[in-house]
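Tokens in:
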């Protein structure tokens, strides 16, 4: 194995730790090779874990999407749901699914975190080969549009995994190339750009945190990776193998080498160590959060909120507590294609509003809720996920 592929190790976390189930890790055993151990819930505030969701020793119930039957997998191969080499993980909060791919395989697996049932998506789009390290899928995240995105080491395939009519569909979006300004910090070179993980922002841009600690911004429409800097504040030999956004909008990074988790400010790339005394071994991270997922920066009003963002009962609450906000407000709901599918008029009295809004026509999926004042100024844009 080349040096950007690091062994998986076991997460040695306290059993009493409690964590909200929206932040996850791939963990493994302390061996000289890559040996998958389990998927775990993680508390990104201190690096401790809670529930073990699925492991190499679990009884796997695998259903083939293509063949529409339960399948028995060849456990001696690299291409099965409990393969020893795991490096790519994303969380789909709409369906409470963990989406992952073994490193030497093109197969996509969908693990339902509640039922522990697994759907096999027999993917013919990806071209992962056990003998070609460039082709291994090592980065994966959920995009702001609700789709899952995955990328191989060399950036020669950027995959979009969409859910349509209860079926997962895979598209190859193309080759991601170096921006001309990158110079020696190449996205496509082993030493500077391979491995690591990726996260998304609220504009559906992506950021790849390579194993070397370099960070690249990818605009999907351009299919170019622009070097934006190197993480500071971590040890010189720290290998960045997992990255995911926490509820504060900061990026949490983790290492397969068995080291502290760090919280990184994307605007400065300055890292600070998380308070846990533990040094977990992590190969990938996933969460439901996004960078810059907040109100408009133009005239932003702090004391306005729309909640919950995960809508299980077709209701959201709109809260205003600001004397500067007066009169009538308009609430608009847009789908991820930008179509306005719902409107509601609200009224603020004495700078205060606490109102429940019924989302009667919305089916399961991701939406943007926009709140504007009488002049049309945006007070708040917020993404919600409706589940039925």
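Residues out:
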């Amino acid at each position: 194995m080349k040096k950007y592929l690091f062994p998986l190790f076991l997460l040695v976390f306290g059993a009493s730790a409690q964590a909200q189930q929206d932040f996850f890790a791939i963990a493994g055993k302390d061996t000289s090779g890559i040996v998958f151990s389990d998927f775990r819930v993680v508390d990104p505030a201190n690096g401790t874990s809670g529930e073990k969701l699925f492991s190499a020793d679990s009884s796997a119930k695998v259903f083939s999407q293509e063949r529409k039957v339960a399948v028995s997998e060849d456990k001696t191969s690299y291409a099965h749901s409990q393969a020893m080499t795991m490096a790519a993980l994303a969380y789909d909060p709409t369906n409470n699914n963990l989406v992952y791919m073994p490193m030497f395989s093109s197969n996509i697996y969908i693990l339902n975190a509640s039922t522990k049932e697994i759907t096999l998506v027999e993917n013919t789009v990806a071209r992962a080969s056990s003998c070609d390290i460039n082709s291994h899928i090592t980065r994966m995240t959920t995009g702001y549009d609700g789709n899952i995105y995955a990328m191989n080491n060399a950036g020669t395939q950027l995959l979009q995994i969409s859910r349509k009519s209860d079926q997962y569909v895979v598209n190859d979006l193309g080759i991601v190339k170096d921006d001309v300004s990158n110079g020696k910090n190449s996205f496509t070179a082993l030493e500077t750009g391979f491995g690591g993980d990726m996260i998304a922002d609220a504009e559906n841009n992506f950021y790849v945190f390579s194993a070397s600690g370099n960070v690249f911004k990818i605009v999907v429409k351009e299919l170019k990776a622009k070097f934006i800097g190197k993480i500071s504040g971590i040890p010189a030999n720290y290998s960045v193998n997992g990255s995911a956004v926490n509820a504060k909008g900061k990026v949490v990074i983790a290492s397969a080498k068995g080291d502290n988790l760090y919280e990184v400010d994307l605007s400065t790339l300055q890292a600070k160590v998380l308070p846990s005394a533990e040094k977990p071994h992590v190969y990938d991270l996933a969460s439901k959060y996004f960078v810059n997922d907040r109100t408009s920066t133009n005239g932003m009003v702090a004391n306005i909120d729309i909640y919950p963002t995960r809508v299980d009962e077709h209701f959201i609450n709109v809260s205003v507590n600001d004397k500067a906000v007066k009169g009538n407000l308009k609430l608009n709901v847009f789908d991820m294609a930008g179509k306005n599918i719902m409107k509601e008029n609200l009224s603020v009295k004495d700078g205060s509003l606490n109102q429940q809004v019924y989302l009667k026509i919305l089916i399961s999926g991701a939406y943007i809720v926009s709140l504007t004042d009488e002049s049309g100024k945006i007070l708040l844009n917020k993404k919600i996920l409706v589940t039925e």
